[in-house]
Amino acid sequence: MTNRLFTSFICSGALLLTACGGGSDSQTSFNGKEKLDYNKPETTETISEAVVNLSTESDNILFFIGMLTQGIYNSVNSADFSCETGTVKLNSNKSVTLDHCKNFKASSQGSQFPGTVSGTIQSTDNSTSSLQKNDLNLSEINIELAENSIVFNGKITHIATSPANNLISESYETDHSTLKFIEKYGDRNHYLYTLYNYQLLSNYYKSTGRIEDFAKGKMNGESNGQVFSVNFASNFNFTSADDLYNFKPHSANVEITDLYNQKNTISIRQTTDAKALINTYADGKLVQTLVQEWDELL
Question: Whole-model pTM?
């Protein structure tokens, strides 16, 4: 899944709205659908791109959906929001419902978001004296852009703390959510992901500017009718915020395990010349070694 164009649009819209700055008992039904074959190179690409995208804040599609919808919510509740066409409604419980809201803008900022958004957003501040916590509940969020569309359902929890003078920690979590992504042109690829017990923890060290990202979770996925189910865990280190957003890690480690056959694995590390080294094992046997630029995995 190619997210660079999609997330650049999302972030531009979120900036306008001042927002840019497990569970194995629940299974997606894959009955009768073909499982991805770890012997095939395209399987490595499909799974690796989906997992790496969720492993840092850099071009993380879940992160940007959260920023966009939180920005919409804040602007509507501040009476600083309008749709070019379509409607937006502030409900009695302070949730926000959009119906084909096209090219919206915050009137105080002027620029328009280049797309259409529908769905319901509820945001709840559960902060305490020691942490900032926000629960974002998203129902049938449908984002239509010129080249891509996305449907998201689920809850995203954002927590920010400062456990030490030198450290700021932020986490983004979802216990269970679904994400459908469609490329409208070219091959018209369709992707469907269900996330369980997902967490992205980002530590920022103020004295050095270093950023360390940890992610973990379970993903059931479907790519153009073929399915996979994996557990994943990752750790990325970046020497600066610029390196994070340009996706140039100082070090990296991603481990992916197939839940249909735990001898099917994908391991991603950094080479000495700062590229991604990807090793894929099918039934315990090394079947592919691939070296790529890191941004090719986003």
Answer: 0.88
